[in-house]
Amino acid sequence: MTSRVVLGVSGGIAAYKACELLRRFTESGHDVTVVPTAAALEFVGAPTWAALSGKPVSTDVWSDVHAVPHVRIGQQADVVVVAPATADLLAKAANGLADDLLTNTLLTAHCPVVFAPAMHTEMWEHPATQANVATLRQRGAIVIEPAEGRLTGADTGKGRLPEPAEIFELVSGVLDRARLHQGGAPQDLSGLKVVVSAGGTREYLDPVRFLGNRSSGLQGYALARAAASRGAHVTLVSANVSLADPAGVSVVRVETTDQLREAVLAATATADAVVMAAAPADFRPTSVSDAKIKKADDGSSPSIELTQNPDVLAEISHDRARPDAVIVGFAAETGDATGSVLDLGRAKLARKGCDLLVVNDVSGGAVFGSADNEAVILGADGAAVEVPRGSKTALAHVIWDEVSRRFAE
What we know:
- The chain has two domains: 4-180, Rossmann fold (3-Layer(aba) Sandwich); 193-408, CoaB-like (Rossmann fold, 3-Layer(aba) Sandwich).
- Helix 1 (18-27) packs across helix 8.
- It has helices at 18-27, 46-53, 69-76, 87-94, 101-108, 121-125, 127-138, 164-180, 218-229, 257-268, 312-318, 341-352, 392-408, and strands spanning 4-9, 31-36, 79-85, 113-117, 142-143, 147-150, 156-160, 193-199, 203-204, 210-211, 233-239, 249-254, 273-276, 283-285, 306-308, 326-333, 356-361, 372-379, 384-391.
- The strands form five sheets. The protein has an eight-stranded mixed β-sheet with strand order 12-11-8-13-16-17-18-19, with helices on both faces. The protein has a five-stranded parallel β-sheet with strand order 2-1-3-4-5, with helices on both faces. A two-stranded antiparallel ribbon has the order 6-7.
- By secondary structure, the protein is of the alpha/beta class.
- Helices cover 33% and strands 24% of the residues.
- Residues 4-171 form the Flavoprotein domain.
- GO terms for molecular function: FMN binding; metal ion binding; phosphopantothenate--cysteine ligase activity; phosphopantothenoylcysteine decarboxylase activity.
- CTP binds at residues 282, 292, 310-313, 330, 348, 352.
């Protein structure tokens, strides 16, 4: 669905990345108005923005005065995205300053506003910047946590602009929720700390081979992205996933179930909610060969002894670091002689001790690697929410709706 997007660009070296973000918006059919600051034009010129958006570009309030652009642009927008948002721009926005077209637009916007900061680590961590970010979030704006990585010059640290593709995905989710809530999508996870696990763990047999599973991590990443778009501070524990880091999310990478357990336990100590969407291996070899296991000349097969891995979901559910935390598990079931998919799901919910269990029917390999999903969300309170087949992002938001509802209660 076409939306009116205002893309604000402030004066940082990451301004060139906003060209890709603009292209993604226009290729998706959105009507995009680019509003750069004068400093942004020192990095990327007005002809580039005009060519990519198909619209004239202005930085001041004196062009086309008869159309009152300093008021009209913000009033008519469905979403305003500022990428990159410099420390200077964040300070102006937090203090209500309006000395150019972009800052005027921010004051007149009644739609969701998303800031994607980009600056050096010292500038991001400065108490003044952190206070400005807190003020903007308190007012309902979405301020994405910057990524970690290479900055200007040889510097490395937190302050890098998240990848344009991930900013686009986050903003798309914001637009979807705004339409669903008729423009008033709440930041119902604002200030909360949440932990999401994603992917499938590996248990090594030797330096080459491992036991694993088919989890792609797509659902866990959709959950992390959705939580960030609703204002949460998100830690994503990612097991063997080849996906770009979601915008505004801290990613901890692991391989084995033991590593996953260690990372989850560390992150859940202060978490308000935990969603275990990862697929940990149930078993691991009792011993791992230091050298590659060779084929036997006589054609015989090696005997591999397995032992059970720790049950991370049951552990964090029964021995909670915070009694008031909401814990969500996933159950990929196929049904068998002992019961249906939902029967097995209900039994697992009681056994694990979590608050919610998302039950997937994976018969025939369904769900794995797919962009879509369907599920039944079972609650320890007896609730059952059926989610029809749709995008994994849509399912992620329903899961967070259920988590948010329990916080409200």
